[in-house]
Amino acid sequence: MKRFEPLIGLQFLFLTLICQLSNGYAVERQDQDRKQRKMFVVVIPRNTILFDIKDKKDLKTHKKIHAKAFTSSPGNSFLTIVDRSNRPRFLVNSKNIFSIDETAILKGSPKFFKPTFKKIKKDSFDKSISLNHDFFFEKNFLTLSLYNSKNNSLLKISKNYSSVIYDLTLKSKLPLFFGINTSLSKEGNQEDFMVSKIDVGLTLKTKAFSYLFLEKVQLALYGLQTLFQTMSIQGEKAELSTSALRIKVSKEISLMTKYRFKIGVGGSHNLSFFKKRNDSLFFDEKSYFSYGIFIGIQNKSTL
Fold first, then answer.
1. Which stretches within the chain are classed as H helix?
2. Distance CA 155, CA 59 (A)
3. Measuring CA to CA, which residue among 169, 171, 189, 188 is closest to residue 179?
4. Which of the listed residues 101, 117, 147 is the one where a domain comes to its end?
5. pLDDT tens, residue by residue, 218-246
6. Which of 54, 165, 175, 241 is deepest in the core (most CB within 10 A)?
7. In sequence order, which residues have a C-beta less than 8 Å from that of residue 248 and are 6 or more positions away?
């Protein structure tokens, strides 16, 4: 039996060497598998259940987090979340998980479960307000019918005047934009005719649309009231109050990226009253129609 003792020692040494080589190969294989895994970054929503592989228990996330993960097979419904050493740590159902970039691997060693999303305050309305600013130069044409008791004559006045107009409208998801309008009008020395006035009011505009051969067309409806209006006719001066309902059609012309140019036509139905006048002037018809042509520019801003 003594002569077999060296053989038994050699066998034990051989088996020990095989075990060490096997363990080394297994460790090396695990390292290779870990390197070959396709890592990607995932976002895990709040209140998601994670299974802790190490402690064998379920955990719930209390906030939105991101981490590195891999999947063991394409058809597997569970993702494996790794720690900072890329060792498997958690299992999570991929149903509510989404990837930020499937080809991205986080560089460096960020803290595990580092929050990347700030808490969003939910309001009933969007805080950003988009506004349209329209500036127009308009030429208006009108015909008035007045009676002058001094010379017992009926005056038919067909004149024109110029206006500078500003529209401020609020953009919305609706097909209509709401806003306000103001205009300054003045014209003098037209054969003893002069008009000066300031109008304010509300406006309602459609979004730009296309119709037949026309593209980027917009309709606008105005309700206006004069804050100040004076008129001088053949030396007779009067202060008026005028209400107007106006409709405009404009066509957008794209010349610059930041600004939009517009041209168009409009018509107004006016109703005027004397606030202060010389006793010799009387309206033959208080209701009259006027029309105008305009050109303008639009700019946008966000609050």
1. 5-36
2. 91
3. 169
4. 101
5. 999 999 999 989 888 777 788 889 999 99
6. 165
7. 219, 220, 222, 264, 265, 266, 294
CA 52 to chain centre: 43
Edge-to-edge strands of the sheet including 49-52?
A: 57-60, 49-52, 88-93, 78-82, 65-70, 40-44, 98-101
Are residue 218 and residue 142 in the same domain, yes or no?
Answer: yes
Locate 87 and state its tokens: 């060792």
254: domain CATH number is 2.40.160.20
- CA end-to-end span of the chain: 98
Is residue 151 located within the same domain as residue 276?
yes
Same domain? 73 vs 192: no
Cβ contacts of 76-80, under 8 Å, gap ≥ 24: 79/42
Residues 90 and 189 in one domain: no
**96: containing domain:** 33-101
CA–CA separation, 186 and 278 (whole Å) = 21
CA–CA distance, 129 with 124 (Å, rounded to integer): 13
pLDDT tens digits along 173-210: 888 899 999 999 987 655 667 788 999 999 999 988 88
In a domain, 188, yes or no: yes
Would 221 be classed as within a structural domain? Answer: yes
Mean pLDDT of 135-154: 85
Checking if the pLDDT of 150 tops 80, the result is: no
**Domains in the chain, number:** 2
| Statement to judge: residues 137 and 176 lie in one domain | yes
Residue of 253, 261, 247 lying closest to 292 (CA atoms):
247
pLDDT at 13 (0 to 100): 54
Among 242, 238, 246, smallest CA distance to 146 is for: 238
73 and 221 fall within a common domain: no
Res 254: pLDDT: 75
Residues 93, 172, single domain; the answer is no
In the three-class reduction of DSSP (H, G, I as helix; E, B as strand; rest coil), residue 58 is classed as strand
In a domain, 6, yes or no: no
In a domain, 257, yes or no: yes
